[in-house]
Amino acid sequence: MDARQARTRAKLLEALLSLLEREPFEAITVRALAAAAGVGYATFFRHYPSKEALLDDLAADEIAELLGRAMPLMSVKDSGRACVALFDFVARRKALWRALLTGGAAPILRAQFIDQARAIAAGFAGPPPDDGCPVDLRVTFATSATLEIIAWWLGQDEAEALPTERIAAILNRLAITPTVGQG
Amino acid sequence: MDARQARTRAKLLEALLSLLEREPFEAITVRALAAAAGVGYATFFRHYPSKEALLDDLAADEIAELLGRAMPLMSVKDSGRACVALFDFVARRKALWRALLTGGAAPILRAQFIDQARAIAAGFAGPPPDDGCPVDLRVTFATSATLEIIAWWLGQDEAEALPTERIAAILNRLAITPTVGQG
Amino acid sequence: MDARQARTRAKLLEALLSLLEREPFEAITVRALAAAAGVGYATFFRHYPSKEALLDDLAADEIAELLGRAMPLMSVKDSGRACVALFDFVARRKALWRALLTGGAAPILRAQFIDQARAIAAGFAGPPPDDGCPVDLRVTFATSATLEIIAWWLGQDEAEALPTERIAAILNRLAITPTVGQG
Amino acid sequence: MDARQARTRAKLLEALLSLLEREPFEAITVRALAAAAGVGYATFFRHYPSKEALLDDLAADEIAELLGRAMPLMSVKDSGRACVALFDFVARRKALWRALLTGGAAPILRAQFIDQARAIAAGFAGPPPDDGCPVDLRVTFATSATLEIIAWWLGQDEAEALPTERIAAILNRLAITPTVGQG
DNA sequence: CTCTAATCGAGACGGTACGTCGCGTCTTACG
DNA sequence: CGTAAGACGCGACGTACCGTCTCGATTAGAG
Question: pTM of the prediction?
Answer without folding.
Answer: 0.89
